[in-house]
Each structure stands twice: as C-alpha cells, then as structure tokens.
Design a protein that fits this description.
197 residues, alpha+beta, four-stranded antiparallel beta sheet, 8 strands
C-alpha cells in the first residue's frame, strides 16, 4: 500500500511543481477580462468604420463604372435600384444596377442589358441619394444629366457618427466625403456634416 501511494503522490525534495495556482489563474483571467472590456468598444467602432469604408468604396467604383460606360458607349448610362418591374426606385440600400438607356426612357427595357450589379448593403444600414431621387444618369460626355449635383449618405445602423458620403458633381466627377475639421464626422465638399437624421 505504501508503494502505491508513492507512485500516485511522489514526494521528493528534488521535484519541481509546474503549473498555475488557482489564485494565479484567477488574477490572469481577471486582467484579461478588464483589458477586453476596455478594448472591445474601440474594436467594435473600428470594425464598423472598416465596413462603412468598404461599402463607400464599392459604391464609388460602381459610379465610376456607370460614368465610364456612358463615355465608352456614347450613350446615356443609368445607375439605380430596380424594382420587380425593372423601374428605378428610391430604395438605394437595395441592389444597384448599371445599364445603358438606349431609347432614353429612363428605365431598362428588353433590348437593354444590365452592365453591372452592385449587391445590396448590409441589413439595417441605410443609403440615401439626394431628396427622393431614384436614379443617376450620366451623359456620353461623362457629365450628369440634369442640373444639380447630389450626395449619397451611407448611414450604418446605430452608429450614425460613422456616416460617410459620396458627392456626385454636375461635371460627373465623384468624390468621397472626408473629415475636414478633425471632429471624427465626415463633411461634404461644402464642409457640411454628413447627416443621417
């Protein structure tokens, strides 16, 4: 019996004990929890900012594709969200389609094909363009068809301070908003904050 105890619980003065004590483990877990609680809110904002920047870049590229399509084909090109009847709507958060408007009726017809589709933005986020505008039309010169420029406003759900914008000038040039005054809120080219309220 004595021999069995020595095998199970060898006690010698030369044995080193390796591992953590319960107190050391509790202190380590507590410190890790405190650091995570401090870092998590900042990490969450960082992830949202990256997501918004990614969506703005996708929209910017889609607008450039539309403008280049108009210039390269010598015909008007339209970008808009299409409904089930292939008519442009104001639901900019949905899938966006780019097409050449061959007959200038401001909608896609059977003989017109979709050049590019930009997927819908993440659920819960919002995307607005101007005041109730349902499409953007570029002329073969690359300019906007119409008299006024417009601003896209991308509004992430529950994080309006991370809103971004894209400005489409009458010349057809496309600009991303930026934080001009270093207050962590983007402004348009007229130094007005991108507002999602």
């Amino acid at each position: 019996m004595d021999f069995m105890l020595k095998l199970i619980y060898p006690i010698t003065s030369n044995t080193l004990i390796k591992g953590f004590t319960l107190i050391e483990l509790m202190v380590s877990v507590s410190l890790t929890s405190i650091l995570a609680a401090i870092a998590f809110p900042h990490f969450s904002d960082f992830i949202i900012k990256i997501r918004v920047d990614n969506e703005i870049s996708k929209l910017h590229r889609t607008l450039l594709i539309t403008r280049n399509t108009a210039i390269n084909t010598g015909q008007k090109a339209i970008i808009c969200p299409l409904n089930n009847n292939f008519q442009c709507t104001i639901q900019w958060q949905n899938e966006l389609s780019v097409f050449v408007d061959v007959n200038n009726n401001k909608m896609i017809d059977v003989n017109e094909k979709i050049i590019h589709i930009r997927p819908a933005i993440p659920t819960g986020d919002e995307l607005f363009y101007g005041k109730g505008r349902n499409k953007i039309t570029f002329k073969p010169t690359g300019q906007l068809s119409g008299l006024a420029n417009g601003t896209f406003r991308y509004c992430p759900q529950n994080h309006k301070k991370n809103s971004r914008g894209i400005i489409v000038a009458r010349s057809g040039r496309v600009y991303q908003s930026s934080d001009v005054d270093n207050d962590s809120i983007d402004e348009n080219r007229g130094n007005k904050e991108i507002n999602c309220e």
